[in-house]
Amino acid sequence: MCGIVGIVSNQSVSKRLIEGLTRLEYRGYDSAGIAVINGQGIKRRRAPGKIINLQHVLDDSPIDGTCGIAHTRWATHGKPNMENAHPHQAGNVAIVHNGIIENFKPLREELARKGHVFATQTDSEVIAHLIQYFLDKAMDEESAFLACVERLEGAYAVAALIGKDNQTLFAARHGSPLVVGFGEGEMFVGSDAFALAPFTKRVLYLEEGDSAVVKIDDVCVRDKSGEEVTREIMTASISAVMAEKGNYRHFMEKEIHEQPEALARTIAAYMDPETNLPLLGDAAPFLRDAERLVAIACGTAYLAASVGKYWFEGLAGVHVETDIASEFRYRTPALPKKNGTALFISQSGETADTLAAMRYCNRAGLDTIGVLNAPESSIARETNAIMRTLAGPEIGVASTKAFTAQLAVLAMGAIGMAHLRGSLSQADTQIHLMALETLPELAQQALTVKAQCEAIAPILATAKQSFFIGRGVYYPLALEGALKLKEITYLPAEGYAAGELKHGPIALIEDGTPVVVIAPTDALIEKTISNVEEVAARGAKVIAITDEAGAEQFKDSTKDIIILPDMPGLTGPIISAIPLQFLAYFTALKLGTNLDQPRNLAKSVTVE
Ligand code: AGP
User: Fold this and answer.
1) What is the CA(214)–ligand 1 centre distance, in A?
2) pTM score, two decimals?
3) pLDDT tens digits, one per residue of 184-225
4) Burial class for 68, CB neighbours closer than 10 Å (0-12, 13-18, 19+)
5) Is the domain of 429 the same as that of 458?
């Protein structure tokens, strides 16, 4: 996904456009650009790669004005290079876009037939030409903008400058988020409230199909029918300071360390202090009455769903179907005709695949619950209920505190559902909740394995391929450990069910192949130990993540044993994620990759 910022002000905007853009760089960093409108028309500067490159261009060749737009790109159509960088310009129009214009090819052909010459391979450029086309038909700026938006199909959050000196921002959203910010003597547009946090916390969220004409002291919002509407002005909950690295080297390192407090906030939100029973809020009836659950997500969030499956099925006795969002709706899933509840787990609440799957389930008549870190997101606005993760802003592209917070919410949901349905007694419910209440302390203790993980990291950094294995609830953790390593070190890694290795993948084990096994003491540890012996016998370099009791059992297979505190109830998979995060982090640190913004990735993928 891409990041968009716009400012219309009584002061110059260039510097603050870059400041806002920098807060959106986690959304994409293939190229960046800025356009301002001043007495001499629209001026533009762009650069490939990260925003610092654009800053250098501006240092050499500054532009400024009191109305401007800026963009940081995650390439969908067209190479991540200079000519495809936004803003795109056509005549007296400059635009920045996040999303995919699905009908850009026919529009491009139609406009080319009318003499428009395209300079890029992108879908987005067609927006600038289409606005200019309507201007050429003597429409005023707002009419030309709305006529263009009418013709667009697909997903877009778009901001435009139109004319020679029109101090106005034109904005519209469909499928990609866009907020309008209210300042003192200035107004803003941005992809999210986080980008505008240094300037204002007063924002309104444009809804699907909304367009906005934003002037220095006013905004006019129209809904998809063209009717003028009022959208609520809210105070965004994101403080600018929450998004700084502080004295950490990376956002990822900071966010790993924020897990005790993130877990404390999250658990407290679901605990009734009087009764010590779960508080599930609006989600309660949809869980209580569900005959079947469907849990859909992408990436790490999908792995959280996969852990949740064990808990909902084990405690509440309800069948849970999990699937990755990009596959789910294309396989004609057999969905429950009644009393079906679908969970959508998402840190950003904007992941296009998850959003599309949620809409599919809405249309199929399921009750939908969003497990979300962004309560104002698109998924939040379209589900029947949300269960918030209170992880705070997660800037590192690799999900850490959001993942463990998702697990905590799913654990609370499973316990709460079991209690509501009588499959857990009140006493057992309270025992489970007391275990979850120890999560912040357990996470704090788990952070102490940091130095040991740093010492072990070179084993992973120098291997051509690593394996992560686990059984039961630790199988999705193995997949998560492999995903973390892959996405920030670019090293090949496979997550596998420990019992499955012998059915083929064990052929890949050779002398020194690192095998990370996640196996705190549980009913399956003996079987996992056998699987570890099978790979150790073939030369694997075993790295064990376990607890005190488990360490005793691993000491014959390896000396690299990462010992976690005893983890009661459902806390095991949540706490075991921390050493996996550290192993990936220090391996990436050793390799020198850009671990907060790994190549080819973006924090939230808002295109399918
Ligand atoms: C997590 O480390 C990854 N960056 C990625 O898999 C992420 O979990 C996935 O894209 C889903 O994002 P979401 O939680 O915002 O929907």
Assistant:
1) 32
2) 0.79
3) 999 999 998 888 988 999 999 999 899 999 999 999 999 999
4) buried
5) no
